[in-house]
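Below is how a single chain appears once it has passed through the pipeline. First comes the sequence as given, then the structure the pipeline wrote out for it. We keep one example in the README because the format questions we get most often are answered faster by looking than by reading.
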Amino acid sequence: MAIFRECLRRILSDVRGTGGTVAGSAKSDDKGTNFEVERKFAIANDELDSVRSRLSAMGFKLARTIDMTDHFLPTRVKGEMLRVRDENIDGRKHTVCTIKEWVMIGNGKERQESEGHLGAVSRCILLVVGRLIGGKPLSTFSKRRLEHQADGPQFSNVVITLDQVDGLGKYSGHYAEVEVLVPQDGNVEEARAAVFRLASQLFGQERDCVEMSYQQMLEASRSQSGR
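Resulting structure:
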């Protein structure tokens, strides 16, 4: 229940603590608090096959396919993200709540992330309260995520996903995300270098990352369509 209480508090108040995002985790399989060193890259339709081939050659295999629907909750702090995500993994459905906020580490910013599972009642409360506080329907979109992992200790904290994203207007399409999860005392600079090194292997050349988050794409799409 820690993630539910913290998310609800952040919807209702702009007061933030200084000792980490969430002070605990209710389930042993919750991720807790980490730094999410992640970069997103756009993929053209005609290069999907080559990207998949390179991913396999790098030793990454499909671990699971996840159908996701994200609901973004209102927050009183700029740059913070509060998200309720419904996931369907091989017919098994559950809901995850995620809190992300930017923190300065070294010479750049990274997302600090806390995540935990929600029960049906907690999910309903957050969505209803978010809708009431925001005064409008919550921003929502869906995607299919192919999550790839590799064997071996050198890739134990690396996940590469291929996303097919719908509902983002002109931003809909295919993306790859290269993510390295770093614990609170981990080496973030090393993780940043690893992300771009892996991306260069994945695309066969250096490539600029996409700066906009999916949430920002969704907001831009809604603004352009006048919604």
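The two ends are 34 Å apart (CA to CA).

See the next section for the split statistics.
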